[in-house]
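Tokens in:
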């Protein structure tokens, strides 16, 4: 059976002063083995967090990586560098990267392949805009994104994040989340085969909070959450971890 994952995406938030939140998370959930816990801090905090989480169950991830292992790419970070700093995962293709840095599906796929090559598991993000949802195109859009963004082989994690639900407090209807996750799993079965489709966690992301986590994480085919704002506080993220654990 595939593992359940609670992943936190700190985005461009966090300095040394915020390491207290990780220390609190380690104290409360650092030895929890029932679900996988991943924190993706800004790269500047990775090494320090690796020290704080060493020997425990909490894993770390990057928020993006370059497709090349090294080279003349000022300001970029490679997958082997993230690995070296203590990461086991890396988010690729987040809608904020796609929007801010014009990352295409092909670029996301190249990053995911680079991540795998460095021993990281890519968390590959997909999601429709509000206009696409309103036009009834959500399933077609996310399936097409998935086709173009995934490497040929696993392992990878998929995160369905409707763009209009990120940081807005809006969430899709539960039936809509269920529908998309089922469609992604079915499409993945067609493109990558049943074994990989069954083994691949599909996370939901977009305004997951302690108040809605139980309902969302209890849905069929939802294998966890990618959490932005609510992952910054150990207390809130801990409540989401516990909601996920209660679905086991
Ligand atoms: P949010 O962000 O939980 O703050 O909506 C989710 C994400 O962007 O991964």
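Residues out:
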């Amino acid at each position: 059976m595939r593992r359940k994952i609670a992943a936190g995406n700190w985005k461009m938030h966090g300095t040394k002063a915020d390491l207290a939140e990780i220390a609190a998370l380690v104290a409360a959930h650092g030895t929890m083995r029932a679900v996988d816990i991943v924190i993706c801090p800004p790269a500047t905090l990775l090494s320090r967090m690796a020290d704080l989480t060493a020997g425990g169950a909490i894993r770390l991830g990057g928020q993006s990586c370059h497709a090349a292992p090294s080279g003349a790419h000022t300001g970029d970070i490679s997958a082997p560098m993230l690995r070296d700093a203590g990461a086991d995962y890396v988010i690729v293709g987040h809608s904020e990267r796609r929007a801010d840095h014009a990352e295409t599906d092909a670029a996301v796929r190249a990053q995911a392949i680079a991540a795998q090559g460095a021993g990281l598991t890519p968390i590959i993000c997909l999601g429709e805009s509000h206009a696409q949802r309103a036009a009834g195109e959500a399933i077609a859009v996310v399936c097409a994104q998935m086709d173009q963004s995934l490497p040929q082989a696993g392992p990878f994690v998929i995160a369905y994040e409707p763009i209009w639900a990120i940081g807005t407090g809006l969430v899709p209807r539960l039936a809509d989340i269920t529908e998309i996750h089922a469609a992604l799993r079915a499409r993945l079965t067609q493109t990558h085969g049943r074994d990989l489709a069954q083994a691949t966690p599909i996370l939901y992301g977009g305004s997951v909070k302690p108040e809605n986590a139980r309902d969302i994480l209890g849905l069929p085919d939802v294998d966890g959450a990618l959490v932005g704002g609510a992952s910054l506080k150990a207390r809130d993220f801990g409540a989401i971890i516990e909601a996920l654990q209660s679905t086991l």
